[in-house]
Backbone:
């Protein structure tokens, strides 16, 4: 049900962009050939074709910067999930090879956290962008288990030192992943791109003032391009929701890989 709603929200975003820019294209075309405004519009006739390149290039460049920022944040979120998953796998693998440890307790605590993060916290992050209290408790329990193992009298000093390092590494990986949740493109850049898109439509219309059908075709192609470009960027802003979102598959793979150790 939640997934269906999120997909509906994605479609609403694209539909809104399409409605806005189709409306502006229709309005521009109507004003250019409306009898009451036709004389005024023709007074601007004579704009050379290269004029299109200036406004469209500025729009494309600004949209590219916005898209690069959004997609960089998207990739950073995906990399953070992979990094945390890799860190957990390395922790389980390395601790299993360390002597004098309760390997079962350490591995079990790590997998309980992973299961909670994948099955409880991930859906919560999708809808509220807030962490799950049970997952926080599971992570605290994991750090406590590592700390107790490190402080155990029977644990060799070099193993204790390694466990202390893993505590810091695991904590850093989780904090780094969660800290990226609030990264979004600011509204000022979106407003700038939105206005430049309208100016691009106007400039395209300005060099087709004499031919009604030619202007309609040019505006149609430009409008579709604008909607596709801005739609793709808009759908990538919310990294954890919608049709274009980062995957939690690395966490699920850990559960599959070490499922026999879960208890």
Residues:
């Amino acid at each position: 049900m939640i997934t269906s709603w999120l997909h509906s929200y994605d479609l609403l975003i694209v539909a809104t962009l399409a409605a806005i820019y189709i409306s502006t294209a229709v309005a521009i075309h109507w004003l250019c050939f409306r009898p009451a405004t036709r004389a005024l519009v023709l007074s601007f006739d004579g704009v050379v074709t290269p004029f299109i390149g200036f406004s469209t290039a500025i729009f494309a460049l600004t949209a590219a910067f916005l898209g690069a920022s959004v997609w960089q944040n998207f990739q950073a979120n995906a990399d953070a999930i992979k990094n945390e998953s890799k860190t957990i796998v390395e922790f389980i693998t390395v601790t299993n090879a360390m002597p004098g440890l309760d390997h079962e307790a350490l591995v079990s605590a790590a997998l309980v956290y992973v299961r909670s993060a994948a099955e409880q916290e991930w859906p919560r992050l999708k809808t509220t962008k807030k962490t799950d209290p049970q997952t926080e408790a599971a992570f605290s329990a994991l750090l406590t288990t590592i700390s107790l193992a490190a402080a155990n009298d029977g644990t060799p000093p070099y193993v204790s030192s390694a466990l202390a390092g893993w505590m810091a590494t695991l904590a850093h990986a989780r904090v780094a992943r969660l800290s990226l949740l609030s990264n979004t493109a600011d509204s000022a850049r979106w407003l700038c791109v939105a206005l430049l898109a309208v100016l691009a439509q106007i400039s395209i219309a300005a060099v087709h003032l004499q031919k009604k059908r030619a202007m309609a075709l040019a505006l149609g192609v430009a409008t579709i391009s604008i909607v596709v470009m801005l739609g793709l960027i808009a759908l990538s802003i919310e990294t954890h929701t919608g049709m274009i979102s980062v995957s939690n598959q690395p966490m699920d793979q850990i559960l599959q890989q070490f499922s026999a150790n879960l208890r």
The CA atoms of residues 20 and 227 lie 9 Å apart. The two ends are 30 Å apart (CA to CA). The chain has a mean pLDDT of 87. The chain has one domain: 2-261.
